[in-house]
Amino acid sequence: MKISIIGSGAMGILIAMKLNETENNISLVATRETAEKIERRGVVIVEGITEIENKIKIDEEIPNADWHILAVKNYHLDNIIPELKKYKSNILTCQNGLKAVRKLSTELDEERIVGMVTSVGSTVIERGHVKHTGEGYTKIGEMNGKKSERVLRIVEKFNNAGIKTEITDNLKGEIWLKGIVNSAINPVTAIASKRNGALIDGALNERARKICEEGMRVAEKYEIEMPENPWKKTMEIITLTSDNESSMLQDVKKGRKTEIDAINGEIARLGKNKNIETPENDKIIEEMLVYA
Q1: What does the DSSP assignment read for 38-78?
Q2: Of 231, 246, 244, 243, nearest to 291 (Cα)?
Q3: What is the per-residue pLDDT for 49?
Q4: pTM of the full predicted structure?
Q5: What is the C-alpha separation between 65 and 62, in angstroms, rounded?
Q6: Are 153 and 26 in a shared domain?
Q7: Which of 135, 151, 169 is the last residue of a domain?
Q8: Where is the Ketopantoate reductase C-terminal domain (predicted)?
Q9: Which residue, of 169, 187, 207, is where some domain finishes?
Q10: Is 178 a catalytic residue?
Q11: Among residues 73, 103, 178, 233, which one is catalytic?
């Protein structure tokens, strides 16, 4: 089985390197600058105090494959979709927010799309050099909830590679749950320039709660059945990752475009489609425009 991981950021490199330890036909699609650095040194992952190096095949263009794993930011999808239209591969998408699966299912053959949600922690130290910051959970599933043969196979490969993964029959609910949690944590930490633990109590906690509750009201209107209460899950993640910097805060610090539109923006748009006001989301989206 040929697997191509598209995206050489923290998550893409982590997935690629883990799979490359147990599979023979893994490649990583990277920009020229990142590819040159990886080809000189290989991929490096920091596990605790140990640096693990591994050579992996690098592609500068998206190749044909049995599986394409999309480990890129939401705003890169417009450039990737035309390339994916050339092939008939299975597509595993693991973007933050509610936008990616809907967009991919609309612009590509919906039957090609499989979704993934994960809380595995990783951060880029430098190009091709990633720190694994937390095990977390990973769930993969079909949009229709069926336990298909292809999902069984890809989940088996993730587990064999040491990425603890389970099948979900409620992918839509899992995506909404994570999307709402991200909407509450990411922009609040980014605006405040604080680690996740700053949201445990006080004014930042209150702001995160109000944003979360708006997302919950939107989800209810769309009759989404989430596996857990989003605010309870938000508090759990804040506590467990108190020393971590959210991905959005990392983007702000590095001067990169953020995913505020794909996360909070999508919740606000979906709310307005159902005549649900989302003033807390609207406000923080406006505040984030300087970084977006």
Answers
A1: HHHH-EEEEETTEEEEE--EEESSPPP-SEEEE-S-GGGHH
A2: 246
A3: 64
A4: 0.90
A5: 9
A6: yes
A7: 169
A8: 170-286
A9: 169
A10: yes
A11: 178
